[in-house]
């Protein structure tokens, strides 16, 4: 365990935890956009900036992204110093210029006293904050169907050649993880479409619920060495089956 | 895929023999592909992705990130007119006009015979030689509009050889 202070309050967290983890553990709120508990920290959105210092630094302090900075013994963290707040406001001001119509960005900006961007608002408003969660979740699944394309002002998330992505399995993880819900998709009992690609749904042979795409089943089967039919049964029916198997075991009886 | 053209894959096959099948080789392979084809053709990128075992989305991401790569066919010779501060002051605009007149194309465009593409660049780090024009691999320091026709003719002679 390591012991540090955050805004004067003592936090004890396991070694390897980040400053953000420690802050959350004691209920100190630090805004984030690109952080997700299921993914490696990325440090891209710069909203979680905090000031850190230590006694032996003799008054020196530095601004770090709390989502990546490891908690250490004796670390003193300040989450709302003047320069942290000022820097965070610049980030939010810029985000609001990029995404003037996005409720999440408007809310975060409002919480920091910004009602309107001081920059020229984006003439082509977008809801994408380029937090990279969608591309990172796709990478972490092992699919990597989408990535960021271009750079600078023209940077966007897109499939290769802006065409329906051949590698996409239609799992919708990118759309689910998107903090601004800006990845459009359609899904029904018969078909699903995302990124311009259409998928056939697989129905659970037991309850008939369409819960997975054919491509998802094939991908998971290939990755795990489990037969594709295993993934055709939905999770609820798998649990029922498992329970039945257990109750029929002679040892249980 | 839209706009896809069939290209000869022999140069790509030769390039791929020189590198290990790893993501680390991606940029070098793309640079060599760019040198061989003068752009990154879609179907070549698909083959690069397969050969290096890198997701196609990553290959496309890298290919669109760097200014040095183009996804549209380019001329055999790229003319880069520096428009950095020093070159701008020393008359880069007049050089661009002269290339426009000689080649009948605007910056960013390619001649119909696929001989030349003219681009403007923001600084090539040779400000002491301003204004600078790079024709293919040849740097012309102290470039003059009156010499533009000569720069082009020299390169055209190379194209014929």
Structure described in brief:
The complex is a heterodimer of chains A (253) and B (161). Chain A has 253 residues and is an alpha+beta fold.
Explain the overall architecture:
The complex is a heterodimer of chains A (253) and B (161). Chain A has helices at 19-25, 82-98, 103-111, 133-141, 173-177, 214-224, 228-232, 235-248, and strands at 2-6, 9-13, 49-53, 61-65, 76-78, 147-149, 156-158, 185-187, 191-194, 197-203, 210-213. Chain A is of the alpha+beta class and 253 residues long. In chain A, the strands form 3 sheets. In chain A, strands 2-1-5-3-4 form a 5-stranded mixed beta sheet, sandwiched between helices. Chain A has a 4-stranded antiparallel beta sheet with strand order 8-9-10-11. Chain B folds into 2 domains: 10-65, no CATH class; 77-160, Glutaredoxin. In chain B, 44% of the residues lie in helices and 11% in strands. In chain B, β3 (133-135) and β4 form a beta hairpin. Chain B is elongated and about 50 Å long. Chain B starts with 9 loop residues before the first helix and ends with a helix. At the A-B interface, β6 of A face α4 of B.
Set out the fold topology:
The complex is a heterodimer of chains A (253) and B (161).
Chain A: E1 2-6, E2 9-13, H1 19-25, E3 49-53, E4 61-65, E5 76-78, H2 82-98, H3 103-111, H4 133-141, E6 147-149, E7 156-158, H5 173-177, E8 185-187, E9 191-194, E10 197-203, E11 210-213, H6 214-224, H7 228-232, H8 235-248
Parallel strand pairs in A: 1-5
Antiparallel strand pairs in A: 1-2, 3-4, 3-5, 6-7, 8-9, 9-10, 10-11
Helix pairs in contact in A: 2-3
Chain B: H1 10-17, H2 26-37, H3 42-52, H4 56-65, E1 77-82, H5 85-89, H6 92-103, E2 116-121, E3 133-135, E4 138-140, H7 148-160
Parallel strand pairs in B: 1-2
Antiparallel strand pairs in B: 1-3, 3-4
Helix pairs in contact in B: 1-2, 2-3, 3-4
